[in-house]
Amino acid sequence: MDDVRAGRALRALRLRREWTQAELGVRAAVSQSVVSLAERGHFGTLALRTVRGLFAAVDARYSGVVTWRGGALDRLLDARHAGLAEAVVAELIRLGWKPLVEVSFNHYGDRGAIDVLAVQPPSRCGLVVEVKSELTAIEETNRRLDVKVRLAPALIEERFAMRPTVVGRLLVLPRSTTSVRRVSGLGATFSAALPARTVEVRRWLQNPTGGLAGIAFVPFTNGRGSGRADRTR
DNA sequence: TTTAACGTGGAGACTTTAGC
DNA sequence: GCTAAAGTCTCCACGTTAAA
C-alpha cells in the first residue's frame, strides 16, 4: 500500500468514527496538522511512531513494506536464513541427529513449515528448530513455535516412522550483539518459555534427556568471510 | 584499540497561527 | 474543517576526550 492510499485509509477510518482531524490528533497525542499531513500521504515528513500512533488511535495497524531491486530483498533475507539453517543442520548431523528442512504441515487450519525437524533415533527424541535471521515479532514467534511443537510428534511419525518420547524446541538466532541484546532485553515470559541458552542447548543435543526449550546463537556465515557487519559510514 | 561519556550543531518532527 | 507557512524544540549524529 502506498502512502497516499494509506492516508486515504486513515481518513476513511477517522470519518467512520465521525471524528474531526483535531479529535484524532488528541487521541494520537499529535496536532491536527499532523493528522492532515498523514491523511494526505505525507508520511515521509512524519516519524514512524507518529504514523503508527495515528492508526492505533483508529484501532488499525500500520506496517510499512520494504522493496529493493524487485525480488532481490527476499533473496537477500533468504540467504541469511538459509545460512543459519545450514549451520544448524550441519551441527545436528555431526551430533548424530537426522534433520529435515522446511517440513510443511497443514493441520485443521494450522499451516506452515518447520525450518528444521530432526530426530535422534537412539534416544527417540525429536527437535523442532525455528530459525530467525532477525527477531522481530516475539509473541508471534513464540506462538508459532508452540503450534509446531504440538504438531511435531505426528510429523515425526509420518516422516521418520518413529513416535518420539519427547520433542525439544529450539529458536536459532544469528550470533550478533543485536540478537543477544534483544534476547537479554526480553520480558520474563519469553525467557521462561525458552530458558536454555547455547551451552545448555549443545549439551542437550549431545545427550538429549528430558525436554529442551531454548535459544541458540549461531555464527552467521554466507560463504564470503566472517559475516561481520559492514561498519563503513 | 575500544568503549563510554559528554558537548555541540543541525536536521527534522511537531506546534502554532493565519487564511481559505 | 482543513491546509500551508513559519517558528520552536527535541533528538541524533558527530567529534573530542578520557579511561580501561
User: How many strands?
Assistant: 5
Distance between the termini: 31 Å
* Order of strands in the sheet with most strands: 1-2-3-4-5
For the biggest sheet, the summary is:
5 strands, mixed
Flag low-confidence runs: 221-233
- Helix/strand order, N-terminal first: HHHHHEEEHEHHHE
Global Rg? 22 Å
Which outline best applies?
elongated
Summed up, the helix count is 9
Q: What percent of residues adopt helix (DSSP H or I)?
A: 40-55%
Average predicted local confidence, pLDDT: 75
Structural overview:
The protein contains 9 helices and 5 strands. It has 233 residues and is an alpha/beta fold. A 5-stranded mixed sheet has the order 1-2-3-4-5. 29% of the residues are buried. The model is unreliable at 221-233 (pLDDT under 50). It binds a DNA duplex (20 and 20 nucleotides) through residues 20-22, 30-34, 36-37, 40, 45-47, 50.
Gist of the model:
By secondary structure, the protein is of the alpha/beta class. The protein is built from nine helices and five strands, in the order αααααβββαβαααβ.
